[in-house]
């Protein structure tokens, strides 16, 4: 299937989730994260903030626990600047956030995070294939950002669904993930 077809299919699949099922999947995702990812040597973790209305994977429980139990880790959040480029800003607290034009919470101010300082990236996606290629909303923000990260940075997509879909139109500029985190666990691609 093409990216456009898969995007439509998985957006619908997400919208069809009931609130109870959505909550259960996010709870399982939280447990899968802390069961499968070793945070002891990480210094900076980039994560997206969810659009709950679109039933995106909810990263807030993960963020809260990292802030409480792993004070050596700095969190970084994405922000789309006026030029339409994704920047990374260190997360200081809720007071720093506001919704952008797409309804996504992002830092309105803060200290920029150099991409080369990031050790792990949690990326939103709609679906993925068996090669680690991801389909997002089609803007290419993460593909550009990931190319600026250091080679040792772990690129992990986050999904509420397992998939074995084949993406027919993968582009050469698409940056594949190292792993995918789902409610059933962590699947590595390399």
UniProtKB/TrEMBL annotation:
Its EC number is 6.3.3.2. Substrate binds at residues 49, 56. ATP binds at residues 3-7, 134-142. Its cofactor is Mg(2+). Pfam families: 5-FTHF_cyc-lig. The keyword Protein biosynthesis does not apply. GO terms for molecular function: 5-formyltetrahydrofolate cyclo-ligase activity; ATP binding; metal ion binding. The keyword Aminoacyl-tRNA synthetase does not apply. Keywords: ATP-binding, Ligase, Magnesium, Metal-binding, Nucleotide-binding. One of its GO terms (biological process) is tetrahydrofolate interconversion. It catalyses: (6S)-5-formyl-5,6,7,8-tetrahydrofolate + ATP = (6R)-5,10-methenyltetrahydrofolate + ADP + phosphate. Belongs to the 5-formyltetrahydrofolate cyclo-ligase family. This is 5-formyltetrahydrofolate cyclo-ligase. It comes from Chryseotalea sanaruensis.
């Amino acid at each position: 299937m093409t990216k456009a077809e898969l995007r439509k299919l998985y957006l619908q699949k997400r919208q069809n989730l009931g609130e109870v099922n959505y909550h259960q999947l996010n709870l399982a995702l939280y447990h899968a994260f802390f069961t499968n990812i070793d945070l002891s040597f990480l210094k900076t973790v980039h994560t997206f903030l969810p659009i709950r209305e679109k039933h995106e994977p909810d990263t807030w429980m993960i963020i809260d626990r990292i802030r409480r139990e792993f004070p050596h880790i700095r969190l970084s959040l994405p922000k789309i600047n006026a030029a339409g480029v994704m920047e990374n800003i260190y997360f200081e607290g809720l007071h720093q956030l506001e919704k952008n034009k797409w309804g996504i919470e992002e830092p309105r101010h803060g200290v920029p995070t150099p991409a080369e300082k990031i050790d792990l990236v949690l990326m939103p996606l709609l679906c993925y294939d068996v090669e680690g290629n991801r389909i997002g909303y089609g803007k290419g923000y993460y593909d550009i950002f990931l190319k600026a990260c250091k080679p040792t940075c772990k690129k992990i997509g986050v999904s509420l669904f397992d998939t074995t879909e084949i993406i027919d139109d993968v582009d050469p500029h698409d940056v594949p993930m190292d792993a995918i985190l789902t409610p059933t666990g962590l699947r590595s691609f390399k």
